[in-house]
Specification:
225 residues, alpha+beta, Glutaredoxin, Glutathione S-transferase Yfyf (Class Pi), Chain A, domain 2, 2 domains, four-stranded mixed β-sheet, 4 strands, 55% helix
């Protein structure tokens, strides 16, 4: 069994990989990166991930970065956890990769515009007046599509939970945590409620709360706003 160490920061998409590992049920460690102290750009962390981002997963000391790669590796290495639907069809497998890439490459940047608009332009006031509203507009289009898809079942793949649902769980929690109005998307709201009831989700969130408490004790916690 490989030794696994996941580098995380609260409220980031590292939550998705944490959920995946909790669903698998293997031992793993999480290491907190203090973004408010710019630890993601420290020489020590840049040796692990030169991109200066979480998540990063050490597998027996060897780093793997990017959620699409991390989640794909976990799904292939621990098939008994059913992180993704089983298939022997190459096209079906590539469609699953496309689903993960959709969340990482299409949805995540819109999350950033809503949750951290100040990253887009230097003027903080303008970022909330200009960037966030455009992000909300784009996210409404995305969520309309997702809400329609969830009519066929409670999860992304119908009756079967997958780590893609873990991605949606993070996205929804992140944007509603800063005031995004999701009342027009009842199927997504139901999805979030069902996700909250999963023991693996609860364990993942408990790990995150521990790290939040650490950051608060060090005056380094930046709450969503």
């Amino acid at each position: 069994m490989p030794e696994l160490e996941l580098f995380v920061a609260p409220n980031t998409c590292a939550r998705v990989a944490t959920i995946a590992l909790e669903e698998i049920g293997v031992p793993f460690e999480t290491t907190l990166i203090r973004t408010a102290a710019n630890q993601q750009n420290s020489p020590e962390f840049l040796k692990i991930n030169p991109k200066g981002k979480v998540p990063a997963l050490l597998i027996d000391g060897a780093p793997l970065t990017e959620n699409v790669a991390i989640l794909s590796w976990l799904a292939a290495t621990y098939p008994e956890a059913h992180l993704l639907p089983e298939t022997d069809d190459q096209l079906a497998a590539l469609k699953q990769t496309a689903d993960l890439a959709f969340w990482a490459g299409t949805v995540h940047p819109v999350v950033t515009r809503i949750a951290m608009p100040m990253k887009m332009i230097p003027d903080a006031a303008q970022s909330f007046e200009i960037v966030r509203p455009k992000g909300v507009e784009d996210m409404n289009k995305i969520m309309k599509m997702i809400d329609t898809r969830l009519q066929d079942g409670p999860w992304w793949y119908g009756e079967t939970w997958s780590i893609v649902d873990g991605y949606l769980y993070w996205v929804w929690g992140r944007i509603t945590g800063v005031g995004y109005d999701g009342t027009a998307f009842p199927n997504v709201q139901k999805h979030f409620e069902l996700s909250n009831a999963r023991p693996a989700m609860q364990r993942a969130m408990a790990r995150e709360e521990v790290n939040i408490d650490v950051l608060k004790s060090e005056n380094l916690y930046m709450p969503p706003r």
